[in-house]
Amino acid sequence: MLDWRKYILNNGLTVLTHEAWDTPLATVNVLYNVGSRDEDPRCTGFAHLFEHLMFGGTERVPDYDAVVSSLGGENNAFTNNDITNYYVTVPVDGLQTALGLEADRMGGLNLTQKALDVQQKVVKEEYNQRYMNRPYGDMWLLLRPLCYKVSPYRWATIGADIQHVEDATLMDVQQFHEHFYCPDNAILSVAAPLTHEEIVGMVERAFGTLLRPRKRIGEERCFAREREYSQEPLQTASRRMEVERDVPTDAVYMAWPMCDRYGADFQACDLISDILGTGNSSRLYRGMVSEGRLVSEADACITGDVGQGLLMVSAKVREGEDPEEVAEMIRREAFKLTEAPVDAYELEKVENKYESTFVFSQYKASDRAMGLCYYTWLGDTSLVNREPEKYRQVTPEELQRAAKRLFRTENENLLIIRKK
């Protein structure tokens, strides 16, 4: 069981401490309650752009990476639809310095026109390399607006149009930082071989002088639900799109809108994706991949968004096979889950696989620090220990009912990428 304690600074910063006595390292994880869903549809890609800008340095520390390297540490970050997350791991005697670095760029990021120009070019290059010049790289750029018409999930974190990032002004990014990068919109966790009191003292010294909160901060918050977002209406007709690309082989992508992270079907949908397409014993692998059948690979997953998500199946079609036949085969396998409850053994197998993955994800103290931030952001830190219980509670009958709600003909979105 993972132990933690919570503390809230006067400026609204939520702090979680984990006494990690199994490591000589200390991890500082900072989760900001901002993702691509918080962007103006006319100015998308800002959350991801800002992730890059946060490594541009401050007036006090012009080179963030150089200081981390001098400590013998490592750092990284990611942006998704819902959050932006940063972490730095250092030997424990460098913890105060690492906290100072995070506090410094939260309160004093050096946003200059030169820094913006550099990062705009970096993001554009990333867009070209990851999305435009990689086979199937633009899949999400096509699939998201096919599945979503109203929700802010309809664009990828890179943005709906790279021109939005290119056109960003210095005032735009300064306002973005002022609005979202403040103590009362962040969750900080520290995992280190130190006591709670020692960690809190160090956090107070680093972050305590930052600005006060703009509103009263309660002890229990659900950051993820503090803002209103446009809700996607119920899909009433199937949708499809076909494109040609310079790819090795045809590919089929099928997606079905599902409930949000708090929905009663969330765990069942996640298990359905594992039954369909995770591992060599999955139904799609046995029916479509093994023994040189229709496709060379097939996978299934859920997007895991806190809002209305997607269950998605992807398949790479073997040369000479028909993508339409592949799509029909996927449909048949999906609809089988609506016709009868799964075997108890098959369900237990994917529940075991989930739990083992979950437990392994807490092996490193840095992963524990991230988990504490994430579940606190969801509104229930105790899920860092209890999440597997919720998966264990799913019965074959509940999984079948979830499949019936999910795999409706009018709820299907089909994207076919054909080889030129």
The strand line-up of the biggest sheet is: 1-2-6-3-5-4
| Biggest β-sheet strands, sense, barrel | 6 strands, mixed
Task: Identify the overall geometry.
Answer: globular
Given the structure, what is the number of helices?
Answer: 15
Order of helices and strands: EEEHHEEHHHHHEHEEHHEEHHHHHE
Rg over CA atoms, rounded to whole Å, is 23 Å
Per DSSP E runs of 2 or more residues, the count of β-strands stands at 11
User: Runs with pLDDT <50, length 5+?
Assistant: none
Output the structural class.
alpha+beta
Average predicted confidence as pLDDT = 95
Q: Could you tell me how far the N terminus lies from the C terminus, measured between alpha carbons in angstroms?
A: 53 Å
Helix content: 40-55%
Strand content: 15-25%
Description:
Helices cover 41% and strands 18% of the residues. It has a six-stranded mixed sheet with strand order 1-2-6-3-5-4, with helices on both faces. A five-stranded mixed sheet has the order 7-11-8-10-9, sandwiched between helices. It has 420 residues and is an alpha+beta fold.
Index terms:
six-stranded mixed beta sheet, 420 residues, alpha+beta, five-stranded mixed beta sheet, globular
List the helices and strands and how they pair.
Elements: E1 5-8, E2 14-19, E3 25-32, H1 46-53, H2 64-70, E4 74-79, E5 84-91, H3 95-108, H4 113-132, H5 139-147, H6 162-166, H7 170-180, E6 186-192, H8 196-207, E7 239-245, E8 251-257, H9 266-277, H10 283-289, E9 295-302, E10 310-317, H11 323-339, H12 344-360, H13 365-378, H14 383-392, H15 396-406, E11 413-419
Parallel strand pairs: 2-6, 7-11
Antiparallel strand pairs: 1-2, 3-5, 3-6, 4-5, 8-10, 8-11, 9-10
